[in-house]
Structures
1.
Amino acid sequence: MVTLTKLSSMRVARSILVVSALAVSASFAACAQQTQPNPTGASSSSSSGSAGAGGTAGAGGMAGAGGMAGEAGMGGGGGPTGCKKDADCAMDPAGTVCDVQTGLCVECLPLVPPTDDCTQGTYCNTISHVCEVGCTSTYDCVAGQTCDELTNKCVGCLADTDCNAGSICLSNTCIPGCSGLQPCQAGFSCCSGSCYDFATDENNCGFCQNACSFPPNGSPLCVNGICALGTCKSGFSDCNNDPQDGCEWNVLQDGPCACVPGQKQPCYQGAPGTQGIGACKAGTQTCKADGTGWGACVGQVLPQYEKCNNSIDEDCNGVVDDNTDNDGDGWSSCGGDCCDGFGPGCTSPKEINPGAFEVTNDGVDNDCNPATLDNSPDLCSGATKFTGVTGIDMAKAMELCQFTTENPPLSEKRWGVISAEQLLSNGDKPTTAQLASIQDKQTAIMSGFGINVVPLKGATLAGMSTGVMRDQDDVGYAGTSTNIGTSSFAPTSYLLANGNKLPNSQGCAGTCQANSTTIKDPVNLRLKIRTPTNAKSFTYAFRFYSSEYWDFQCAQFNDFFIGLYSSTWVPDPNDPMQKPLPGDKNVAVDEQGNPISVNNGFFDVCAPKGCNTCPAGVTDLAGTGLQIGNQGGATKWLFNDVPTVPGEIIQLELILFDVEDGTINSLVLLDNWVWNVDALQGLHE
């Protein structure tokens, strides 16, 4: 990696260069004045303004001779004018900083953020060189704000993750809400972009959109995620203390509740058919002292989770020590399910079991492992690696840190990576020599790329290239046009779905046809994963770089990056926002369906050329080699949201390849795999 720090010494060095040049110029000017003295040195102040005052000082001693030359005034000023260093500007009202390039004293010089000559809370205007209210980094902003470095303004946020849990970023302001990347605050859960307390919300009681129905003559109440009876309407009472029939007693018609204070009766509030079965039994309730209703049911035993190997039927289903999966999530209480049915603190049984992923900050032990309650997943990739890079190494660098097998015992059937293979573009296994090229040249585990691009999460990211995966600061850097020499074919199913050819793309210059199917120097990371039982989608991040910009843009041999996805997921017919998975299985496409290439609509990290406006500029190309001669460009970090079925086995092939030629390389950075409890879909920045 290349690291630059803009210090004040850079300005001093620049001053030395300019002062040296000015000194040489001054020497020539002095020689000229010695050969042509001014016979009337006394008038030296008449032609050089403030420089003439210097001529007056020259009236004595050697300066007197200079005074004669000072007639030219300008002769005295014929040497270098303006400032040479900051000390020359100490008393200048324009500013105390010397711009040695112009010789002007200014208030500030803009350097590489977050460094400049301005105080906290201001930034240096690049045109006027005046400190103005604003920012170059979050250091300039008050607590709770962040710096938008494009506008030099302090704003509330730039992304959802700048906000506290339970808030998302909209128009640079944190507002209440949630998203796939931004969870709710502790004790709340996300439903359609809003946060609700499943324990108390009457319209989302226990889970999303579970509205408690109005009981007869009463109001609903949500208690610990279970719908209950709230208050009774005027004139009605709940005399039997049974929430099922609401406020059944008409006080105006029948008077107060008709039990005698102190009267007792049997009671049971468990599910029908469980009383008297196993450990379950009825209790006794007593009429209240005022005779208006019955008290609590004392002594009753209700169904509970089955405890294993104790010869007691706790769930009262007639079977002792059974291993019943009450919520149908594939796990039983004897198998480690800590939430096998609705109850206090257990509002979403199917999504809470050892096969789930731990959702941070929701106050729930999602994976039934108290040691990981609300913890972020452990990271498992901490060091760079440039040779012998395996598919498992790449998965770990993407924060996929849990591994499993395809057919484990039920007690071990947790989510995780089943396999991570490095293959050719058509799915074939590479030869020994081809695999060596992939593992020693075309892939790498890196702590960043170039000067400015760092991992989104953890210490590393994964990279793969059609050439050599290095930046300018890495050992083995080979430039941006290396022919590895591997030949392959495009994925068969992908070609068939696109009319036996690679699909066209729509760039700013129009339709870009891909007429060739000859594949060169491919890398295919095939991930086989069992998804968590509470995950409805996942997100991974990538950046695409190409040296084909701009000379080879919209050509038939443009490189491709695709993500071929296999899943049983289908859209929810009740959700019009969900769309079927692509017929060619490629989920890495923009809103127009264009595959990722130099022609893609997200390709905006570049120097403007032709029809390309490049709004993201070239900052993120520094140190990559692609900035040389501006012959390269990239996308920003893109986030690919992909829907999935909880608990299924999916396959995702992340494939990068050259088309027709093996030179003019492209590369992809991969990072930050995240599981989501909502069904998200699409590609976005």
2.
Amino acid sequence: MKRHLASLFLLFLLISFGSAAQAQSLWQDGANLYADPKPSRVGDIVTVIVEESIRANDEANTDLTKEIKHNVDDGTGIFDFIREFGVKADTDMSGDTSTERDYSLKTTISCVVTEVQDNGNLVIEGYRDLKTHDETLKLTLRGVIRPLDVSFNNTISSTKLANPELFVEGKGSLSRVQKPGLITQILQALF
């Protein structure tokens, strides 16, 4: 009988402790089993595939012709010692300039969602520092994306960003060589 009572008491204890324990599912409702969730909140991360090419051509032609003529007739009265004379000056100036620049940038930047707009669009921002030899490039990317444009692997092309801002800043030996010297900078500022 004692054994039977002890078994009932043990069974009662197990049942009472078992009701307090709850199991949580590893599955979230609405979650996709095969794809990463798309960014939707501040702090979420999205990878931007940057493929930008910019080609700028600028040409300017300047032609300036200026002619000055001034004639003075013979003087009369007390100015009769002045004889007729004339002055003529011609100035011709022309110049041609052309500039051609090609920029190409291919990389990926992981950006963080910094703001969720009222319409559901996401403001993103990301940074990337690249260091090679004695040169450092800092890339900064900001823009607005639509969550619908984010692919199944949580990436988006830079061409799908609205109001994109891409800054590339270089520091190092190459940047120092490309920067004009002090005297050149002064002359460029004056002229």
3.
Amino acid sequence: MDTEWTDIAAERSVLGGIAPFLAGVVLVAMLIGALWLGARVRAREPRRPRPDEQPRIPEGGPVHEERLHREPDEIPQSDRRLTPYEVHGNQGTRPSPEKKRPRWSKNSSGGFGSGGLGAH
């Protein structure tokens, strides 16, 4: 009777059990290393502010939003198309004499995809 095949099968089952165990040990070691590294990084960060160091509301109460309408300065006219470098970056703005918000069309906010019926 030949027992060679049973010996090979027994060796494979042992290797089949050891490989997942070793992979699990490596995975647990990596997780422990990640926790250790995270603790080191967190220890180097500045501490959280105490309650008395938190921001407070100004003495005059909450600050409200201020809406100003501004209009851009005119772009210089030229016989050819200007490149962004010739426009000199951000153009200045000045306060607009109109108090109403500019709209593309009457009764429309100019937004797309807002779910409304839009201007028809």
